[in-house]
Each structure stands twice: as C-alpha cells, then as structure tokens.
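Example 3.2
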Amino acid sequence: MNLRFLLFLFLPFLLSCNSEPKTLFTLLPGSETGVTFQNTVIENEQFNLYDFHNVYNGAGVAVGDLNNDNLPDLYFTGNMSGDRMYINISDNEKGSLKFQDITDKAGIHKGGWSTGVTLADVNADGLLDIYVCKSGNYTGSLRANQLYINQGAGQNGVPTFKEMAQQYGLADTTYSSQAAFFDYDKDGDLDMYLLTTTNLVRNPNRITVPVNDGTGYSADKLYENDGNARFIDVSRKAGILHDGNGLGLSICDIDNDGWEDVFVSNDFLPNDLLYINNHDGTFKEMAKEYLKHHSRFSMGNDVSDFNNDGRADIMMVDMLPANNEQRKMMTGPGNFEQYEVELNTGYHSQFMRNMLHLNLGKSPDGRILFSEIGQIAGVHSSQWSWAPLFADFDNDGLRDLFISNGYLRDITNLDFISYNVAYEQKNLGNLRRYMIDRSLELPSWNDVNCFFRNKGDLTFENTTKAWFGDSLSVSNGAAYADLDNDGDLDLVVNNTNKPAYIMRNDAPTANFLKILLKGRPKNRYGLGSEVSIYANGYLQKYHQAVTKGYASSVDYTIHFGLGKNTQIDSLEIVWTDGKAQKLKNIKANQTLTLDYTNATTATKPDKQQEATLFADVTSAVNINFQPQEERYVDYHVETLLLHKLSQQGPKMAVGDINNDGLDDFFVGGSYKNYGKFFVQTPAGQFIQKSYTNESLPKGEEDIEMILFDADRDKDLDLYIVSGSNEYPDGSKYYQDRLYLNDGKGNFTDATSQLPEIRHSGSCVAVADFDKDGDLDIFRGGRLTPLQYPQSGESYLLKNDYGIFSNYTAQASTELAKVGMVTDALWIDIDNDTWLDLIVVGEFMPVTVFKNTQGKLSKSDAFPNSEGFWNTVAAADFDKDGDIDMVLGNIGLNTRYHFSLNEPLTVYGADYDENGHWDGIPSYYINGKEHPIPTRDDLLRQLPSFRKKFPNYGSYAKATMKEVLTELQMKQAIIKKAYVQESMYAENLGHGKFTLKPLSQMAQWAPVQRMLIDDVNQDGNLDVMMVGNAYDAEPIAGRYDASVGLVLMGDGKGGFKPALYDKTGFVADGDCKDIVVVKTASKNKLYIVSQNKAPLKVFKGK
C-alpha cells in the first residue's frame, strides 16, 4: 500500500479531527464585510473613571433599512471614535455579507460622546431617521442629542441626512442613554421617551430619599409630538417623575390593554421603573406593585413574550459572574441593616443578578402578577452584562436569549476599591490623581457573549460554546436582523476597543415567516402594533418595538421561527388604533407585507368572566389581624447564616373551641405580641378573642400551635410551641405552653402540666401513638440557638389524662437529636394500625419512625433525601389504600443548586475558640467546593482568618480545603443537603416510597405549607400550596416567586398546576400557613397567614 493511497484514505478523517466543530454563528472579519468600526475609549484627563463614571459603558448600534432597498443597514455610535454608518450592499444570490461605509457621504457629524441610537420615521415621510443620544464629560452643543432626518437616497443608493434636532425640539442636553419613539397617546403620531443618567452624583449607591417629583438630576423625559414636527416636553404633566440612572429602555404592553407602557432599568440604587399607561396621556409608576424585586445594577433589558403565552415578560441584566473567583472579587458584605434602610427609605428589593420576570397576567385585585424565575430558568448569571435580546436564533418557534458582556476595566475588584478607600482616608487631596492612575492598571474584563437556547419549559440551556465559541470581547450594544435575507437572524455587536462583530447565523434549515408593516400615515412602520400567529396550535406574539437591549435598536422586520411547520394556520395584526386584520393558511418561508389600509374595525367579543374556584373575600369578612414581628437580626450574631431563623410565623390552628358546631381559628403571636382566637358567629362573621391575660409581658415566640383534647373532657385545648433563635439555649422563653378549655372557649394556663422544655421548638403533631386512649404529642426541635447547624431537641410527650411527661428516650434513642426539624405528622404508612411518625427538616432526610407497639425505630425509607424541607402533608392521592405524602422543599429557583454529588454543606464548630459557634456554608460551582460567604462576612465571623486571607484575591481562589484544615473539618458538625425539589412521595406499600418531583411551578419558591382538599369536587384530592421566604440573606436575595399554587390531583398520583386565573387563588406574600374553616353556611374559607402582613381569606366555590 503506497503513501499516496494512505493519504487519500485517511486525509478526510484527519481533517475532521483537527477542525473546530461548526457553531451556529460565524464571526465574519471586517476584511470580508467591510465593517471596520471600533468604539474607542482611551482614558485621559477629561474622560476617566473619577470625572465621568460612565466612561466604560460603551455604545450602541441600530439596524434598519435606511435606503429602502430591502436590506438592513447599520449605524454604530462611538464614544471617542465618532459614529459610523454602513449601507448593506450584500449579494444575496452569492450569499455574501458586504457593507459600505457612507458616514461622510451621508452627512453624519463627528464629535461628542455618543451612547444610544434608535431609528424611527420621525417626520412620517416613509424614511427611517436616526436619533443619537449624547453624554460624556462635555457641556453645551457637544452634549446635545442629534436627530438625522433622512433626505432619501440618490441613484447610487446612498442616503443623505440633515441634522435637525434643534428644529424638532429634540436637542436635549441631559446625559442621555437611549430614546424610544412610540404613540403613547394614540393620536396617530410618534412621541419620544428619553432615557437619562447623570454624572453629578459622586456616589450613586449612597442612600438618599428617592426624588419622585421630576426635579431630580436624571429624571427621564417624555416628549409629545404636537403633530407639526415639533416635540414638547410633557414629562411632569404625564407623570414621568422618578429620578434614575437609566441604562435600559423598552416600550411594551405589560397589561395587554392595547396601550403602550414603558419599562426602564436603572443602574445603581435608583429603582427600576414600570410606567403603566393610564389611557389619558399620563402614566403611573408601578414597578414596586408588580415586581417583587429587581436587579441591583440593572443594565439593559428586553420585554418580550419568551414563553409564547401572549403576555410580555421582562428580562433585565446585571453583573453577576458565573465563576466563583470573580464573584468573590466583586461581592462585599451582606449588609442586612443597609438592606433594611434601603427598603424603609423607599427603595425596592434589589439583588445583584439577572432577572427574568414571568408575566402571569392580571390578578383579581387588578395588579399584573410576575414571578421572577431567572435562577430556575438558568439565566441569572452571565458575567458583566449589557444587552439582553430575545429572538428565535435557531428558528424552532421559541425565542432564545443573547446577552452581550464585558467591561473595559475591572473596577469592581475589591482589592482595588479597598485600597482606594484607604488612600482617600489618608490623603483626600490627591484621590483624583490616584484613582485615575490606579484604574489604568486594572485589566479589562473581557468575556464571551452568552447564548441561551429556549427549551420550551421556562428553562434555558447555555449554548454559548455551541453557538458562538469562546471569542472574548468587551461588548455593549447589540441588535439583530436578517442581514443576508436567508430567513434567520444575524447579530451585530458594538465592542469597545475591538472591531464590531458581524455574526452571521448559519442555522440549519428551518421554516420562518418575516413580516413588514405598512402602518398609519404618521406611523408608517407600525410601531406599537401587535402580530399574533398560530401554527399547529401554538401561539407566538410580537409587539412591534425596536428599542431593545442596551443603547440599540433592532430591525423593523418582524421574524418568527416556525420549526417544522410549513404553514401558519392563522395570523392577526392589531394596529395601534385597535383596527385589525386576520389572515389564514399562510405559507412559511416568505416575507409578508401587512398594510394598515386592509384593516377593519376590530370587534372584540365580550369576555365572560369565568367562575373561579376561589374568591378573595378578605375585605368582606371580619378578620382584621396584622401580625407583628419585633425586629431581630440573626446576622448580628451568626453572620454566615443563609437565612434568618427568627421569622417563622404566624402559624394557625382550627377547631370549634366553644362547642357551637362552628369552626373557630387561632393565629399565633410573636415576641411581645399575643396571638388571637377568631370565634365564628352564626352569621359567618368572626370576633377576636384573647386566650390569656395580655397585661403580662410576653417573651415567647409562637412557632406552631394545635387545638386538641388534651384532658379527655371533650373540648379542644390549646398547645403552643415556643421557638425562634433570639435566646440562648436553655432560656425559659422556649417553654411550650398548654391552655385548657372550659368547654365554652375560655382557657386556663396549664403549662405546669408539661415537662420543662428549654429548647427552641418548631412543630407539634398529636396522636395516640401508644393506643392508651389519649393523645400524645411530638414536639419538634428546630435548632440549637446561636449554634447553627446544631440539631434541635425534639420531644415525645406521653399523655396521662392531661399530664404530660417526657417519653422521648423510652420510645426511641434516635428521636431527640433527629435534626433541625421543621414539620412532622403521624400516619400509618404500612396499614398495621399503628401510627408512624414522619419528620422533616433543614439538612434532614425525609425521616420515618416506624411504630412497633409504641416503640419508634428510624427506617431508611428515603435514603439521600437530605434537603431544606419545610412541610409535609399526607393523603391517599392515588386511591390504592395507603397513605402518600407531599413534601415542601426550598425549590429550584435559588442561587445555590445542589445534588448528591455536589451537595450544599455547612461545617459547624467554634473554629477560633472564642466561645461563639461558626457555621460555614459551602456549595459547588464549576465542579469545585467553595465557601458561600464573602470575605467580609467570613472575617466578621472569624477575624482570625484574616491572616489566612489577607486580601480579596487570596480568598477568591480558595476552595473549602483551603478555608478549613483537615483537622477542622474532622472536628466540625457537617450537614449536607442533596435535594432541592418539592416532592410527591408515592407509597408503594410495606413502608416503601418513591420520590417524584412536583411540577415546575411548585419549584419556583420554598413551599412553607400545604393543605389537602378536593377543591374542584371531582373526587380527587388536590394540594394547595403557599410559600416564599423574605428572610434570606441579602446577597442571594429573598425568595418571592410563589403567588400561591393549586395542584389538581388526577386520582392516580399525578398533579397538574392550575393557574391562578382559573382558581382565583393569589397568595403572593411571605406566606407561612394555610388552613380551612367551615362556615355556618356550609362554605369553606381558606385562610392564609403572612409574615408582617394581614391574613388573606378565600371563599371556596
């Protein structure tokens, strides 16, 4: 066999082994495309971090057909390099992408610091004009925004422009970030919203009272088009009043009422803004009412229906890195006090990560409900991010997500910041010179731009490497368009100090539809119109708005990916005046033009309000109770806690306390605040009633309570568990309390009939476990106070005619220190007529104590099930004759993801031997176990560790093996958690169970309590869930995505989530408990308790 033959045989194989796998996008060089623009930023005495804090924020790009040749053209803004314009001269038949620089020929001016750019037909002549925002450390005309009016293209195809911002009233000289044109007042012409920032505030994170009257340095502006080519500032009259630091702007219809709203993302401390259109020329800011929280350093945003349910969702980006080292180098202490001060001063909850707010529609009280699901969706961390763009890049019918990343200098480096602070304290006069010189030494934060493929289940897959590779850049503005008219969306990205990206999409063959709009005479491009398509039963909806992402605007051509569908069943466009047009059976793979002249007056059918399963009757019943919570900050003593342990109530208990045949209920109290009975009247109202002498000071925290017949006198007595984390172990305020009923609802303190209990409790469950005729008590131990994660002390109290004794050791040697218990119940898991004990808790497995004639032995029914379990409920859901369970856990919408191979762990010991317990939590990130706390928090808890980690850089790289020695780990109490999901535990018989995760909606937030009932009366048991947790440490942020959930059972062990618009059940606060009360009229009231908020009451139907 000769050499030539061998080469012929193996050359294709060798080439395939050495070639890089083909990515979805191909980065085209400037030598091929003709696009050589580079946004240049070079620090100098005028433009530097000290004198102009937005010096590194980059610039934008706009895409649109500027010469009406059906090819998208490009406009790049430059900070110091001047703007550049390119017309598209691509030859589609040859498959080339080619552009020509026409900046000078077109009449584009150089000079000034350009930021955002948007395209709009401002003068309604059918030609796209260009509006450029200006900023920078300039004054006067160099900071005046520019409006380039399109004069049309000559025979050479080159359009020319005339700068006319002054004539149109749009030569604004504030520090501008971006603009958007839209018809907010529905008068037919385009108005303009101007997004602004400021350079006048030296420390934009300093807490000051928010300025919400329009007088702030950087309140945005609204310009109304007077119909005669003149724009008038109507900001104050229209309600655009809130100060900010704007970086992201989207025009949208959040509430689906046909009137355009405005969403603004603000950097630093100012709240993000959601201006809802009032239909009368004014707006109302509703971000705090609609969104539970938002990003801390909000950059760009995009508002789009990413899950194809017809509602506008919100994506905002921040600067949370995906790797541990960068996170530790930029994250300071978890300052809970500062967080509280911010909230009390008027700021919203803010956390440093990307946010994906899923729009759930309108609640019965008129709010638009959102659940922030960025962490469970997998898009919460993408480095220092700028432009998020939702678009269907692979044409499968689902909008994917692109995010541009990078920053010219790593100014968040905490070693750099701490040195600056130290220098300022020593030598204030030279700080400016020092900061300028030091910032030049900082490296660039070059990163890969991220792609996330939409999986169609509210989650995304990170496809960055597969779709783009690993090219590093400092990227800011970005826009999408089908540059080569091949049916898929390409990307254009404006980079800092690097040539701009032209990213050609080489998506495999898939079907698509592109749509051009010919709108009303003064809105030729149809801004604000909405197009909906239906293909194979699936909806896609697009709101025509081009200002998206960061400092940029996308192409006006609407694009839908269709996957395998070769035909669209139907299409509807609704224009801004409400007129509509419907088309059917439209072939795919074409560009369709929709003309306003073909629209007819829309006749919307009257929507009949569907009857829901529940009605909110809170205001109709006489249940007025505001739970109080005395301020106690656990982090003052235990800095490293992942969440507070002192904010667990209120819980409730239901029973007929006065033997009148009507359900009454009790709501627990807190330190200094007594709980209350609510006694039902025959009219179905409720009267508050005290259970004890409230003139005495109250030191206990009521954690849980139960009504049961403790003394066999045929009435319900009250047992209250004492707990919390506010006192040291052994405190008298951890003593549980017993109150005996006289049969008429009057109670006498009988705590003396209980054994002494001096340990923090969590739950109570009663059963006649020994079959002696009276009800015994399991009392769970939550924790050892101030010694996290030490187990609590649990008790089994044996009842002897109302006198209780500690029977724990006699019943089981493993029960007292079973773990950090949160909930328990007695059920017969194996049908042997003896009630077994189920116990769940934090860092605990689902634990089963098998009852063998009054003796409890721990079984291994749920191996490796350690989690953050909050609650357990049980019933025969699959109708097979044995008892199944549902279990509430922390869920998946959290920064910390853990599993059997990569658990979340806490190492607890007194490492510095100062008499204070130290619990150090860890988690895995990119395959390595790292400490969760920031360096500041670790050193506040363990000052002696400063020698080990003298600066932030040394700590940022540390794994747990470098934080703790081998000896320290051996001496520590180690608790691990493997399971995050809330679960259904199917009883397989003979004490065997299998765990199955509940639906994704049940994983959006911690489940705190569940109620089992057949709510729709179909004969199958359903599960009502309430949850959230506002007490988490402020770096990771509170859990608040739950709005209440009803899981409809199918009678076979399956559950399907019922959305609130079908159930009417909305419980979206910091919910702690849910109970059901039967009324005198045989109805059911479902009562939900919330921490620091009133009870909510729902009537069943």
